[in-house]
Write a structure and sequence with these properties.
26 strands; 558 residues; 17 helices; 3 domains; GMP Synthetase, Chain A, domain 3; 7-stranded mixed beta sheet; 36% helix; single chain; 5-stranded mixed beta sheet; Rossmann fold; globular; alpha/beta
Length: 558
């Protein structure tokens, strides 16, 4: 029987069929960039693969990558795969403690150190005895460099092959609920998801070259599947990388992406950036004027660097329905999707036919879904993982007897297959009224307001739920002005009343509390994919909660 075509076969074919086509564009600083063709990418990866084989690691050895997104992340992963090994990517913002945990838990044999912002703080997490190789954009280290190794090492010949059941990667979750877990993804799953993602996108935006900006962490399944694996399968995608947060808009303008994927927090920040230049009421009025409205919408999208986008996506966390409607009014086809690390980001997606804001779409091809008696969403996907690394008991508990993965999310389904996420089982909490409250839908109602960047709804055992909010970035420096502070307070009071009007009595919020400082990855309140860490934030404010409830005010300042 012919061998199943896997992702390495796609890659090798691209290098043979169009070797001079540019695949990767890497910014080098100061406006300079380096382009890498398919032939150059494969030549570099083959040389490093030969070096890894020379080191004599066991077949399937775990090789780690600690790096921000860059061209050599892609090359390093290809080298790992061609050498017969398994990739373990670590989020580039992780602490030394988590870096050490992932390296030790995975049993990593070697670490690629790449582009990083906080290497001095992370380096103590790297065991002194672990071999390391520095990628070209790495901070200054004593490690041997990628360039030196590839310059002296002849490329691995032939067509390196992997079996569908071989482990391609172990993806460690970003740890929003505790210690990261390692999801094992094999080459069969990576290939099927890459092929499925390409088919899905091509049906929506057509054939031909497409452009994408890779900036969400490649250590996360969303970016790894829909950008990394999809571009390796497609061969027609030109993948650009972002240089830094400060240059992000310039990076977008350089890439002029035709497909753009992001997460809810960044979609909100883009909107707030627009509002900082034009008040929402004025923009709304202008968009309602025939002819002029289209010109204004186009100008807004061009300012964001999104005017060439034929399709945009949001995933990784719930996005407010009103935010989707706002982007669509600008003419941006923004669709929401839903998936998990455990199905390699291949589960549900909205499209032109099924695209109602507030619903996450219909199952992707080959995905089976059902709800159990409690409303938990159960998924069987072509991208389904093999289990959690070194955690057989947790793996067994995560599946039904007939092989469906227990997502932990609660939902409802329509007869046409559309799925709505109504909450996460582990996030539900009871107030003193004795009924469960799902925080995420309420947070979505709050987050859509222009003065709010992020929110968290809590209130375990309290008389009623409450919300903590982080103010929009442009407002934070200005609230020391008493006039601005009073205006913000009034806006939040109106927001509280409006949100409560749409909630059941047991869900209604007692108050809104303004956080003292923004939540960030650096202070441990957000995961690397910008999800809120509920337990961390709730623990930090726990000593103040009783005092808040003793206050009669609707809006408090922490």
């Amino acid at each position: 029987m012919p061998q199943t075509r896997l992702i390495l076969d796609h890659v090798l074919d691209h290098a043979e069929q169009h070797p001079d086509r540019v695949y990767l564009t890497q910014p080098l600083g100061g406006g300079r960039v380096a382009d890498y063709t398919w032939a150059q990418v494969l030549d570099q990866a083959r040389r490093m693969a030969a070096h890894l084989q020379q080191r004599g690691f066991e077949p399937g050895a775990r090789i780690a990558i600690l790096s921000k997104n860059c061209a050599h992340f892609i090359m390093a992963e290809l080298a790992i795969w061609m050498a017969g090994h398994t990739t373990v990517a670590i989020f580039p913002t992780e602490t030394a403690e988590t870096v050490r945990f992932v390296l030790e838990h995975s049993g990593a044999s070697l670490l690629f150190v790449g582009k990083l912002d906080t290497w001095p703080q992370q380096q103590p997490g790297v065991p002194a005895e672990l071999p390391c190789i520095a990628l070209p954009l790495a901070p200054k280290t004593e490690f041997e460099t990628w360039d030196a190794i590839t310059a002296r090492t002849p490329p691995l010949p032939g067509r390196p092959q992997r079996a569908a059941e071989d482990l391609a990667m172990i993806i460690y979750t970003s740890g929003s609920t505790g210690q990261p877990k390692g999801a094992m993804i094999d080459f069969g799953a990576v290939t099927r998801v890459g092929e499925g993602a390409v088919q899905d996108v091509r049906q929506r935006v057509g054939q031909g070259e497409s452009r994408m900006l890779s900036y969400l962490p490649l250590a996360h399944s969303y970016e790894r599947a829909w950008v990394g694996a999809a571009s390796l399968v497609d061969g027609n995608e030109h993948l650009f990388f972002a240089e830094s947060l400060d240059t992000f808009l310039q990076d977008l303008q350089r890439a002029r992406p035709t497909l753009f994927l992001s997460v809810p927090r960044l979609w909100l920040k883009f909107q707030q950036g627009v509002f900082s230049k034009m008040p929402p009421a004025k923009l709304d009025r202008l968009l309602g004027i025939p002819l002029l409205g289209r010109v204004v919408a186009r100008k807004v999208l061009k300012g964001l660097g999104l005017d060439q986008v034929r399709q945009a996506g949001s995933a990784s966390a719930p996005i407010p329905a009103e935010l989707i409607r706002w982007y669509r009014r600008l003419g941006l086809e923004l669709f929401e999707g839903y998936a998990m690390t455990e199905d390699f980001a291949f589960s549900h997606a909205s499209n032109e036919r099924f695209s109602e804001p507030g619903w996450v779409g219909v199952p992707m091809p080959g995905v089976q879904v059902r709800l159990d008696a409690s409303g938990e969403i159960l998924i069987k996907s072509p991208g389904q993982f093999r289990g959690y690394y070194k955690q057989p008991e947790l793996t067994a508990a995560s599946f039904t007897e007939d092989g469906f993965f227990r997502t932990g999310d609660l939902g409802e389904r329509r007869p046409d297959g559309m799925l709505r996420i109504t909450g996460r089982a582990k996030e539900l909490f009871k107030t003193a009224k004795g009924k469960y409250v799902a925080p995420a839908p309420i947070e979505n109602l709050i987050n859509v307001h222009p003065v709010v960047e992020l929110s968290l709804v809590s209130g375990v055992g309290q008389p009623a739920a409450y919300a903590i909010v982080v103010l929009a970035e442009d407002l934070r420096p200005r609230v020391s002005d008493p006039t601005v502070r009073a205006q913000v307070q009034a806006e939040l009071e109106r927001l509280l009343d409006r949100v409560n009007q749409g909630l059941a009595d047991y869900e209604q919020l007692r108050m809104v509390v303004v956080a003292r400082e923004p939540w960030s990855i650096e202070n441990g309140c957000l995961t690397p994919t910008m999800k809120i860490k509920r337990s961390r934030i709730e623990a930090a404010v726990a000593p103040q909660v009783e005092r808040w409830y003793a206050e009669p005010k609707k809006v408090l300042w922490a």
